[in-house]
Structure formats: structure tokens, C-alpha cells
Design goal:
Distance between the termini: 27 Å
Pfam families: AHSA1
Family: Belongs to the AHA1 family.
CATH architecture: 2-Layer Sandwich
Strand order of the largest sheet: 1-2-8-7-6-5-4-3
Protein name: ATPase
Largest sheet: 8 strands, antiparallel
InterPro entries: ASHA1/2-like_C (IPR013538), START-like_dom_sf (IPR023393)
Helix content: 25-40%
Radius of gyration: 15 Å
């Protein structure tokens, strides 16, 4: 399973990360993993509650932190989920691909210096999503390590 990632820097000061990953699971299963709190909490980097509808929101709770609200900006089951989190716009799309599906994620990055860290974080999350879909346990560790961040700095040319 490979993840393709690129960074769009056409808007000065606002890089947009684009991820593409194919999962060997039907779109309905991946959609459920994106839009139900219990499933999201298995692979997202925090505890999640979601009011999955246009105008709804995600409530994201990291350990020892106050909950954050991420308003849903687009909701088109089972194709598109978009929300605004901490000033960044995230848009998830799913398209059928044979027996599986292709997930695309775009993420605007508020702080360009943080682009490689954000990419590495999503890499870890997309692996955790694959594990959750496969019924495998999540890997130990909460986030990306320095080696993965350094690799993304090189791949994305953000050194």
C-alpha cells in the first residue's frame, strides 16, 4: 500500500498537502471509518465525536487538553467530508476502485514551516486507518518520529 503525497504552493504562504491512498476495502467501509466517532477514534490522533451531517461538527479531544470543535463544511455521503480544524481546511474524498477505494485528502497548512510535520502526521494516521480497516492493532506511539519528518522535508523540498 503506497501513499502519494504532494504539496501545492501555488498560493503564496498557504501550502496545501494532497494525499492519495488506495485501500483494499469498499468505499462504504472507509466512509464509516471517516464518519463515525467510534471508528474515527481508532485511527485519528485523538478521541473523536462527530455529528456527521452538513452543518455538523467534529469534537476532537486530545489527552489533557480541552476539546476542539471542527465544523463540517462539506458533507456528501459516501463521497466527501470536509471540515475546518485549527484554521486548516481538510477535505476527504472517496471514489470506488474495483473492490476497494481511493481516498484523497487535501490539507491547507497554516504554518508553512510545519508542512513536513503535518505530512508525516497524516502518513501515520493513514497507516492507522489501514490497520483499523484490516482489524489490526494500531502501532505504538502517538505520532511521527523525527526520521519520518526529515524524510518528508526532503520529499516535499521544505528544508
Amino acid at each position: 500500500m503506497t501513499t502519494r503525497v504532494r504539496v501545492d504552493t501555488s498560493t503564496p504562504g498557504t501550502p496545501v498537502l494532497h494525499f492519495t491512498r488506495r485501500y483494499e476495502h469498499p468505499r462504504s467501509a472507509v466512509w464509516a471509518a471517516l464518519t463515525t466517532g467510534e471508528a474515527l477514534s481508532r485511527w485519528f490522533p485523538c478521541q473523536v465525536e462527530i455529528d456527521a451531517r452538513r452543518g455538523g461538527a467534529l469534537t476532537l479531544t486530545f489527552p489533557d487538553e480541552a476539546p476542539e470543535t471542527a465544523p463540517i463544511t462539506e458533507f456528501d455521503p459516501p463521497r466527501t467530508l470536509a471540515f475546518r480544524w485549527a484554521g486548516e481546511d481538510l477535505r476527504w474524498t472517496l471514489e470506488e476502485d474495483g473492490e476497494g477505494c481511493v481516498l484523497r485528502l487535501s490539507n491547507t497548512v497554516v504554518d508553512p514551516a510545519w508542512t513536513a510535520n503535518t505530512a508525516a502526521g497524516w502518513d501515520v494516521c493513514l497507516d492507522a486507518l489501514a490497520a483499523a480497516l484490516d482489524g489490526r492493532p494500531r502501532r505504538a506511539g502517538a505520532g511521527p518520529d523525527e526520521e519520518l519528518i526529515a524524510r518528508y522535508r526532503t520529499v516535499l523540498g521544505t528544508e
